[in-house]
Write a structure and sequence with these properties.
By secondary structure, the chain is α+β, with helices and mostly antiparallel strands. Helix content is about 40%, strand content about 10%. It is built from 14 helices and 16 strands. The strands form six sheets. A four-stranded mixed sheet has the order 1-2-13-10, with helices on both faces. Helix 3 packs antiparallel against helix 4 and helix 10 packs across helix 11. It is globular.
Length: about 425
C-alpha cells in the first residue's frame, strides 16, 4: 500500500510539472527488486560475501523495498556501484581507470549552501596540482515520493553563449538558454561579453526552485591555447577549462536513483579541439583557426583546409595542456587504452557495452583500433542516464555474461523487449 501511494504521489508530481520527475525512470516494484537483487549479487561476488551474509542483506533490502519503496546503500555498496556505473557507461572511452574513481559520500548534504560548498571542494580536489583526479560526489537519492536537490547545468564549469541582435552567438551556442536564465536571475559578465565568460551553475532544490551558484574567483583553472609553430593562433585568445565536471546525469544503482551525482574525469584532446571549439553548434571557430594558420577557407576545391586546421588545433590544445601541467590524453592513446580495457573485461568473462558512435574519436577515426571493433551497447544497470525517454529507456539488468540455457537467454530477450515497449511514451 505504501509503495502504491508513493507511486501515486510521484505521478501527481509529474502532472504538476516537476522537472526531475519527468526525467526519472519509472520502475514497477518487481523491476526495482530485480535491479536491486542483480546489483547485490554483483557486489557480493566482487567482495566474496558468503551465503549467510548475502541472504541477510537481501532480506533487509527486500523488506525495505516492500515497506517504503526504497532502501539505503551501505558506503561500500555506494562506492562499488559508482565505479560499476562508470565501467558500464557505453559512451565513455576512458573506462580503463574505473577502479581508481574516488567516491565521496555526500548523502547527508541536502541544502543548496552545503551542495555549493561541496562542489567547490570537488573542483579543487579534482584540479589538484594539474594531475586530474577522477572524483564523484554522490548526494541524496530519490526516496519514494521525496525528490532531492539536483544540478540542472550540464557541467559545473561552462562558457556563456551571448545571443547577438544580428542573430549570431558570441561564445558557446550550446549554452544560449542557460545564459538567458542566468541573466534573468541577476548574473552578468564582468566587463563586456566575451567568448569565454564563465557561467554560474544552476541548482534545483527539493522544492524544484532554481538557485544560481557562482564558483569563487580563481577557483576554475583555465588553459590558454597556443600553437608551438604558429604564434598567430595564440593571438585568437582561445582557452578552455581544465576539468570537465558532468553534473546533469542520474546515477542508478540497484533500483535507486541518485539525480545529483556530479563526476569528472580528464579531457581527451579531441573533445575540446575537434568538437567544443570546432562544431558549428558550439563555438564554430574552425574558419578563424584556419586563417590564423595561413589557410583560406573560401578557396575553391576540396575543403581539405578543415582537416589541416583540425589537426593543428589538436596539436595546439595538447601542447597547451602539457605546458600547463594539466592531465590530458590524445585520441590515439585513449583508443589504445580502451582496447586494453576491452581485453581485460573479456579476460574476466564480461562483455563490454559500447556506443560505437561515441567511442570512435572524431579525429583520424579509422586510424584507431576502436573504429574496427564490433561492439554493442546493451545498456546494463548499474549506469548513468540523462532522462528516461532517451538513454534511460533501455537500462535494465544484463544476464548475458552468465552461463545460461538457450531457453533462459530467449526469455531474457523477450522480457527486455517487453520492458522497452512498456516504457515507451505512447
Amino acid at each position: 500500500m505504501r509503495r502504491a501511494f508513493a507511486t501515486l504521489v510521484r505521478g501527481a508530481d509529474a502532472v504538476t510539472g516537476s522537472s526531475l520527475e519527468k526525467r526519472l525512470r519509472r520502475l514497477s516494484g518487481l523491476e526495482q527488486r530485480e535491479e536491486a537483487r542483480a546489483f547485490l549479487d554483483e557486489f557480493n561476488d566482487a567482495v566474496g560475501a558468503g551465503p549467510a551474509a548475502r541472504q541477510a542483506r537481501w532480506a533487509d533490502v527486500r523488506r525495505s523495498l516492500i515497506r517504503h519503496g526504497w532502501y539505503e546503500h551501505t558506503p561500500e555498496e555506494l562506492a562499488f556501484g559508482a565505479r560499476l556505473a562508470w565501467r558500464n557507461t557505453g559512451r565513455c572511452i576512458g573506462r580503463l581507470f574505473w577502479k581508481s574513481l574516488d567516491v565521496v559520500d555526500c548523502r547527508s548534504l541536502t541544502e543548496p549552501g552545503a551542495i555549493h560548498q561541496r562542489m567547490t571542494e570537488h573542483l579543487g580536489e579534482a584540479q589538484s596540482d594539474g594531475r586530474i583526479r577522477s572524483i564523484i560526489s554522490v548526494f541524496p537519492p530519490v526516496k519514494g515520493a521525496q525528490l532531492p536537490a539536483w544540478i540542472e547545468s550540464r557541467q559545473l564549469v561552462q562558457y556563456a553563449g551571448h545571443a547577438q541582435q544580428t542573430g549570431g552567438v558570441l561564445g558557446d551556442r550550446q549554452n544560449v538558454e542557460a545564459t538567458r536564465i542566468s541573466r534573468s536571475m541577476g548574473w552578468s559578465p564582468s566587463g563586456h561579453p566575451g567568448r569565454f565568460d564563465l557561467l554560474p551553475w544552476l541548482l534545483r532544490d527539493k522544492d524544484d526552485r532554481r538557485h544560481l551558484s557562482a564558483l569563487p574567483e580563481g577557483a576554475v583553472k583555465e588553459v590558454e591555447i597556443a600553437h608551438p609553430d604558429h604564434p598567430a593562433l595564440k593571438a585568437l585568445g582561445l582557452r578552455w577549462y581544465a576539468v570537465p565536471v558532468v553534473t546533469n546525469m542520474i546515477l542508478t544503482i540497484g533500483g535507486i536513483e541518485y539525480p545529483c551525482a556530479p563526476f569528472n574525469g580528464f579531457y581527451m584532446g579531441t573533445e575540446i579541439a575537434s568538437r567544443n571549439l570546432a562544431d558549428k553548434q558550439r563555438f564554430n571557430l574552425l574558419p578563424m583557426v584556419a586563417r590564423a594558420l595561413g589557410l583560406d577557407p573560401d578557396a575553391p576545391g576540396p575543403a581539405f583546409w578543415r582537416d589541416v586546421a583540425l589537426t593543428e588545433l589538436n596539436r595546439a590544445v595538447l601542447n597547451s595542456f602539457k605546458e600547463a601541467g594539466v592531465t590530458m590524453v590524445d585520441h590515439h592513446t585513449a583508443s589504445d587504452q580502451f582496447m586494453t580495457f576491452h581485453s581485460q573485461e573479456q579476460a574476466n568473462g564480461r562483455r563490454v557495452p559500447g556506443d560505437w558512435r561515441w567511442l570512435v574519436p572524431p579525429q583520424a577515426s579509422s586510424a584507431s583500433d576502436v573504429f574496427h571493433l564490433r561492439i554493442r551497447n546493451f545498456h546494463p544497470v548499474t549506469n548513468f542516464y540523462r532522462d528516461r525517454g532517451g538513454d534511460g529507456l533501455r537500462l535494465m539488468p544484463w544476464y548475458g555474461d552468465r552461463e545460461r540455457h538457450r531457453a533462459a537467454v530467449w526469455t531474457d530477450r523477450m522480457i527486455r523487449r517487453w520492458k522497452i515497449w512498456k516504457r515507451m511514451p505512447w
